[in-house]
Every structure is written in C-alpha cells, then in structure tokens.
Automatic annotation (TrEMBL):
Residues 42-165 form the CBM6 domain. It comes from Saccharothrix texasensis. GO terms for molecular function: carbohydrate binding; hydrolase activity, acting on glycosyl bonds. PANTHER family: HEDGEHOG-INTERACTING PROTEIN, HIPL1 PROTEIN. This is Glucose/arabinose dehydrogenase.
Amino acid sequence: MGSNALGARPQRSPRRRLAVAAVTASTALSLLTASGAAHGLTDHQSEAATISRGAVEAEHAGFTGTGYVDYDNAFGGYVEYSVTAARAGTHALVFRYANGSDTDRPLALTVDGARAGVVPFPGTGGWATWRDVTAPVRLRAGVNRVRATATTAAGGPNADRLVVDDTDTEPPTPPRDLRATDRSETSVSLAWGAAADDVGVVGYDVYQHGQLMTSVPGTTLSATVTGLRPDTAYDWTVFARDAAPNVSQASNNVVVRTDAPPPDDEPPTAPGGLRPAGKSPTSVSLAWEAATDNVGVTGYVVHRDGVQVGTTDGPSTTVTGLSAGTGYRFAVRARDAAGNLSPFSDEVILAPGGTAPPGEPRPGAVTTLREGTDVPWGLAFLPDGTALVSERERFTLYRLAPDGTRTDVGRVPGAQGTNGEGGVLGVELSPAFATDRHVFIYHTTSSGNQVVRARLIGETLTGWTTILSGLPKNRYHNGGRLRFSPDGRYLFVSTGDAQNGSYGQNLDTNAGKILRIHPDGSIPADNPFPGKAIWSYGHRNVQGLDFDSQGRLWATEFGNNSLDELNLITRGGNYGWPGCEGTQGYCEGSIPPKRMWPTTAGGPSGLAIVNDHLFVGTTVGKRLYRLRIEGSELVEEAVYLQGEYGRLRTVEVDPEGDLWVTTTWDLDEEVGNDRVLHVDLEYPGS
C-alpha cells in the first residue's frame, strides 16, 4: 500500500524553477519530429511543451524525461502539447501525473481552441506517486494543439508527460436495412447493407436478443443461423467490427418467427440420472441427464410429491420455499415443441437443509486443528467432513480431518510463487463431487494465474486440466478465491489487478475482475459482456466470495491506502477502482460498498455467510468481523478474535455449522508456522 501522508502542494520559490515559464510549440514539434513518432504511441514530455502559469521542476522522484511541470496554485494555468496525428478520429490521450493532495485537480482539454472535455485528476497518495488518466479525444490529421488548463484555484497536478495512442478508436457506422431473406423451422437467413468505417470493416456479428449467434467477414453481407426452435419469434440485430476492434452501434432490429413444424406426436425420452446438486435450509437443487426427442426437447417439467412445481429450459433447477428437515419426492419430465411429455424420470427423495442450524450464529470456543502449515489459503470441505487445504508457498494440497490428521494429496504442477501473494490459492469442490470427483484450484504459473481442475481419486489428485488461463500476475494483487453459484452451474473467480490499477476499468483483461465461467471453463452466453468471462469490474484485489440465502454474491476487497470494501456484487457492475477507493476519489458511475473499514483495521480476505450473517477474516486488522444482512444493507457489526491469532486469511463453514479459519504469517513471524483453527458457532434459540 502507498503512503497515507496526503497534503497540499507546497508553494514554490521562483528561484527553484529549472526553466522559463513558456517553451514554444515549435520546439516541442521539432522534438517530436526528431523522434520519428508520427503514429502509434507517441510520447510528449510536459517539460518540452508550451507552459503558462507553471514551471518545470525535478523535486519529486519518479518522473520520466528531464522533469515535470508544476502548475501554479491558480485557475487558468496550462500545458499545451503539439500532437501530430497520422489520421483523423478519436485518439486515447494518456496523461501521467502526480497529485499528493486529497483534492481533485481537474483539467479542461481543448484541441486547437475547441473544447474537448474536462478530465479529473484525483489524489495519487503522494507527489512522488505517479498514475495515468486516459481521455478519448478527437484529433484531426496533422498537427493538433492540445491544451490542458487548470479549472480550480488549486491549479493542476504535477504533469509528467502525455502519451498519444494513435490506434483506431472510431467504430464503424451501424449496418443498414437489416432484413430476413428466408426462414425454415430451424433457421433464419438475414441480409443487410454495408457499414462504413474510417479504416475498414473486417466483420459482422449477428445477435439474437443480445446473444451472439454467428459472425461473418466484412465482405459478406448475409448470414444464416441454424439450430433454432420451430414456431418461435427471434429478435435479430447486426453489429459491424473494424480491425482495432471497434464495434458499431446496433443495426435496426427485425423479428422473425420460424416456420411451424409438421404434426409431432412422438414424446421425448425420460430424463435420466436425476440427482441432488445442492441444498439450503429452504431449497433443493436438482440435476439430470438431458432427454432426447425426434425434433428437439424444449424444456422440462419438475414435480414435487406428484404436483408440478416448475419448469426449466435445461437439465437442472432449484426448488425453493421448502421446510428444513422435511423429505420431498421429486421427479422430472421432458417436453418438446408440440407439447408432448416424456415418461417420468426416476424419483429421488431429498430434504432441504444447510450446514448450520437456524438462528443467530455466535462464535464460541476456538481450537487449533493444525499448526506448522504454510499459508493455508484455500479450504473446501469433502462429503465426509474432512477438508482440502492448499499451502500457498509449498504448492501442495492436503486433506485435514477434524481431529487434525493431515494426509497429503498432491502438488500442483507448474505452480510458482511471487515472493508475495502468488502461489496455490483458492480451492473449490464441484457441486457434483460425489459423482465427478472434481476439485478446482486457482494458482500462479510462470506466465500468469490460472484455474485448473483435477480429480481426487482415493488420496491422490490426478487428471490435471487447465480451464482458465492468461490471468495477469504480479508480486501482489493476484486475487484467487473460487466459489460455485448456489445452483452449481457457474464458477465465480476473483482476480487482482496485478498491481496495474488501470486493469480495473479495462474490459479487455480479466485482471481486477470477478469472473463467471462454466465448470469446463467456457463462457456463459448470458454474461454481461458478450464473449467475456467478466461478471463485474473495477476491483483492486478481491479475496473473499460467498452467496447469501437469496443467491446474491458478496465480495471482500483490499483497498489501497485508505478504505477496504465489502461489496454486494451485481451483474456487470463497476466498483470504481482505480479512480474510486471506498467512496473517495472519482466515483461517478460506480457502485458504493455496503461496508468500509480503514485499511489499518481491515485487510479483508476470507468471507463465509451463515444464516445471512457475514463472517470476514482480516489480515491487517487481525480480527473476525460479523455483520447481519438486512435487505440489501449490513447491520449489527461485531468483532471477534481481535489480535488473538494474528492475521486471519480464510473463513469457511464446515458440515456441522462451525467455522474453520486459517492464519497467515506476518513479517515478524516464522514462515510456515501458520494454523488452521476451529471456531464453534453457537445458535441460541435453535
């Protein structure tokens, strides 16, 4: 974390200036021309620009070039850069700056005197702490005068340089006149007019109500989509792409109904393998093998105790509104487009119930289950009540029994540490572990972080398969928590920003995100950003994930140097980093946390939810927080174990309704001497 010392910029003495108050634009242009940088990424040092009401300084370390511009503490000072653009269009202007105050110092941008917007420059934590701010600005081909003017009496930030990205950011125009040219029972053919682009269209993407169905090259102005349902209305749009790639706005939409099928009186086959896939105190999740049909299965009908209680499109569902401890009989039938119903599946008898009794969970006695373990980071319970534990720095997993007995089950192939927060991190079991024996593990490799899947056969992990790779790594900020959704269909993965704050807002990288994938690593079609694993963004370093009784996802997040966060995660939500930390900084458009702690009292890592009470283990605060969910807010915060067991890393609920908590060594402690603790939870009134 950076320094907590924020303060106003000290006034300068004119004797400390290293340059006169103005450098001519012609000088800046000659420097640029000499560099040969007329396209691509071009670097413009602020000390070589035209300066008004500011001076070139070199007092604070970390700048590039020969110095930086220190704006006067006054309104109207500016730095004007001479920028040569190889093409007309929108360009990304990246300003490198430092702002050691706690006050935003926005700059107004103009291009050749025309207004181009106002860019915020929030505090960076110190005058020697440099960050980047990016602004999309339209430039003309040739030389442009880009001026950044202070808009407040505080003046501007310390300006190090301007990097201009000449990469194409201009999207194509929308495709025109989308229309249907043919249809059948299971297909629709479409055609459209060409889109226009300043560089060139390379492809068209055909969507049906937000789902990508097919893509064609930029020279093709038609497509046929197959595999559709008969007698069904589909809503079509087309998008154009250029090579950057920039994506156009949508074409006009056209609704096409597929042809009705001929009469069908053949029912589907009965669904097979009906089985439990999870449960809570008031719900049961079911899964089964897909049925077959001569035309096609369109859905399933779910029965409880002989009465229909729901329908679903795919071979799984969750039945809610049940009573804990009561057994229910479940069976499923398949249905085709003609309404024919299959025979019933085999019947299963299931009783809802969670890992905890009802009531308010209160931490009680603490017992050490295991000492001398190395950074026990991930922990997941097996059906027999033992737990799989990962050791971050030793790259191993072992099985830990409630009596403290340890049995090694394997070392993760290719795992590496980072001399910081990398290594073997999160562990999660498949919801169908009883049948598939799958274990999911998040770990660091030489090329980045990744998620792998293995099978636990006896006491050995085998059959290693990578399902998600290419997650940026660094010494710190590697994320690493895994958590299946309550229905068992999706695996959520938390990542860190790999110490590159700009990744938080960059939707072209999985760093600084919460991801949502299928258990095989494929991307769900209903993710908020088509073709991407990203579920939410704007995160710094998320290390805790869990779901409440309503199926809502909560996450803990490490702050930088002011505020840690506890967030309620929504689909496609932006949680602000790096511009916003907690509720400080530039937070417009971001979702505020439900709870914040000063970074000196937090460091929130592990998260477990019991009866809608959140338990948060903290590293810096060395305490266990408990908060109760009321609606969408958090109330009744309580603190346990404060300072008694050191840095707390992971919190999980065992099959008996108690907590297992792991510890993480501190700088003044012996490496490899961490513990796994058992915390009794009492449930008064249960």
